[in-house]
Amino acid sequence: MSRLPMSMSMSSSVTASCSLLLLTFGLVGPAHADSMSTLIAQKSTQPTSNTSYRYPDVSRQAPTVLPAFLSGDYDNIDSEYLPLLSSAETQSSLAAREVVSTARKMALNERTIIQGGCWDYLNAVFKRAGVTRDTIHKGTYGQGPYANSGEIEVGDWLYYINHGYNNVEHSGLFVGWVDERAKQALILSYAGENRREPARYRVYDLSNVYQIMRPSV
């Protein structure tokens, strides 16, 4: 007597057992039992599908595209701050936008040198932009009160203590926060005609801002 393969023997045994069980309890007739046995045998021979999970694509932020007027090679602003300057020109109020745009043209494109110091330079910027200025916050160098960061907006003309240079009085044009919690901001600053240098965009500590003048039209 030939020996059947083990898999065939087990399949026949399972089929016979299922048919016998169904007939014994009278749940279905013999014809239905045979059909059920055939279905079980077919299911046992079908391969199991193995669908691998695909993780959703990660959305990546597109790199900042600078406008044409900021596409030059400048030595008076660090390139990493150009997007902040671009944002200041496009997302501010009309008066602030005029001031920031005019200051950028004078500093980066024309490299303007004027007679006087930081006050004279910013006064020239505001005049050329065709705006006036309103005093929003007023204190004193030594006594304050000093402004909160939330009071400062793009295009504001600020007076503050220059902690990076002997704690002297200084003024500059606010462009935007580099790190608001640490009071670090990008400021347009003018050293004066004796330096024979255009205004520069630098990061300053604004922990002690004692006067804010805001452009208006």
TrEMBL record:
Classify the source by domain of life.
Answer: Bacteria
Could you tell me which PROSITE patterns the record lists for this protein?
Answer: PROKAR_LIPOPROTEIN
Where in the sequence is the signal peptide annotated? 1-33
Q: Which keywords fit this entry according to its UniProt record?
A: Signal
The protein in question is named CHAP domain-containing protein
Question: Native species of this protein?
Answer: Psychrobacter fozii
List the top taxonomic levels of the source.
Bacteria, Pseudomonadati, Pseudomonadota, Gammaproteobacteria, Moraxellales
